[in-house]
Design goal:
Blueprint (H helix, E strand, L loop, with lengths): L16 H4 L19 E11 L2 E11 L4 E8 L2 E12 L2 E5 L5 E9 L2 E6 L2 E7 L5 H11 L7 H15 L4 E8 L12 E8 L4 E7 L5 E7 L17 H10 L5 E10 L7 E9 L5 E5 L4 E3 L8 H25 L9 H11 L3 E3 L2 E3 L5 E3 L1
Antiparallel strand pairs: 1-2, 1-8, 2-3, 3-4, 4-5, 5-6, 6-7, 7-8, 9-10, 9-13, 10-11, 11-12, 13-14, 14-15, 15-16, 17-18, 18-19
Helix pairs in contact: 2-5, 5-6
């Protein structure tokens, strides 16, 4: 989906929208008054306004004490996340979704249940059986972090969303086109991140839109086979591949790129960036994530299973570190690539990061 949707935001130049975000994000407005009885996590059912217009079904709603909310609607074939301000006055409420659309109406309490009537429909709220506090806290903190133009940033955000859809959702492919000169995203770029859930046999594609939100589309597996192994998250950013290419003398630019797993069996699987280039005398460049190596697009002769296991272990540690940062609400260094995450983690532990390893001043290995 083109990122031109961000141009609908007011008060920001289009060229700055990717880096800064705008509109009704969780951090866009000051706290507003909200009925304390509504603060908490709720299991909802009925018809409610989302960023994909009106939806009917079950959803989870988290309302914070500062009057901001997160709404997660998830089903096998339906998925949406919204956020924004939620305010109340006596028995009336008003809220704005992540695209700027407004809804309002009335609510009343019957025992533990709230009955809500709005412009777009009616729904019920019941105390959530699973409050998922850590998950919603991390997601809420993430939504307060302005998005950057890095593909790895959006992929990490998308992974957090995809696991809300289905807990086993794993990254299957990333496609990017109309890239900026430095292999990052511009307001006119297109980016699609596809996740696969074996539990439900569905693909979920997420694409950036305005205010740091993601639009979603779900489709059955059908004739399309998922990759033999998932791509570990966080990923190595495409800009880091370009940096290595520049160091090797490449002078062109990447026009589009695909990140997917090459190999027909799990034992042959190698996650690899494949980029189409303009200028520089080449038509295509590839980058093997596990070997961290520019290639001629033929797989390296190394042991693919061993390399994948090492890459997966590194990514798992980096992902845990990223989630810890989100849980604490930390925003420094919010380009969530594998390399950037490991470098930041190593620095935080007082070490020096080099050759995919973090070492202390006395030579002691900190990780991996």
């Amino acid at each position: 989906m083109p990122l031109t949707a961000w141009r609908r935001c007011r008060g920001a130049a289009a060229a700055l929208l990717v880096a800064a975000g705008c509109g009704t994000g969780l951090a866009a407005e000051p706290a507003r008054p909200v009925d304390r009885a509504l603060v908490g996590t709720w299991d909802g059912s009925g018809t409610i306004l989302t960023s994909s217009l009106r939806k009917s079904g079950s959803f989870t709603l988290r309302i914070e004490p500062d009057g901001r909310y997160i709404l997660v609607l998830r089903a096998i074939d339906d998925f949406a996340i919204d956020w924004g301000p939620w305010t109340t006055s006596q028995d009336k409420f008003a809220r704005t979704d992540s695209t700027g659309m407004e809804d309002q109406g009335t609510y009343r309490r019957i025992g533990e249940v709230f009955l809500v009537t709005s412009i777009f429909g009616t729904f019920e709220l019941r105390p959530a059986r699973d409050k998922q506090d850590a998950l919603f806290q991390g997601l809420g903190n993430l939504m307060r972090i302005p998005p950057t133009p890095a593909i790895s940033d959006w992929t990490a955000r998308a992974a957090a969303w995809a696991m809300l859809w289905q807990s086993d959702a794993a990254l299957d492919q990333v496609e990017a086109s109309r890239l900026a000169e430095n292999a990052t995203l511009a307001p006119y770029s297109e980016l699609g991140m596809t996740f696969y859930s074996a539990a439900v046999g569905r693909f979920l594609q997420l694409s950036p839109s305005q205010n740091g939100t993601l639009t979603s589309a779900i489709g059955p597996r059908g004739a399309r086979a998922p990759a033999p192994r998932p791509i570990p998250v966080p990923i190595v950013d495409l800009s880091e591949m370009l940096r290595d290419a520049r160091a090797a003398g490449f002078t062109g630019r990447y026009t589009s790129a695909v990140l997917r797993v090459f190999g027909e069996t799990p034992e042959q699987s190698r996650p690899q960036w494949s980029a189409n280039v303009a200028g520089g005398g080449l038509g295509r460049q590839c980058f093997d994530l596990a070997a961290r190596l520019l290639t001629d697009c033929a797989p390296p002769a190394d042991d693919a299973a061993r390399d994948y296991a090492a890459l997966s272990a590194r990514a798992t540690q980096a992902w845990q570190w990223i989630q810890a940062q989100w849980a604490q609400g930390l925003t420094e260094g919010s380009t969530w690539s594998l390399e950037a995450s490991e470098t930041a983690r190593c620095k935080a532990e007082g070490g020096t990061y080099r050759d995919a390893a973090c070492s202390a001043a006395d030579g002691r290995r900190i990780f991996p």
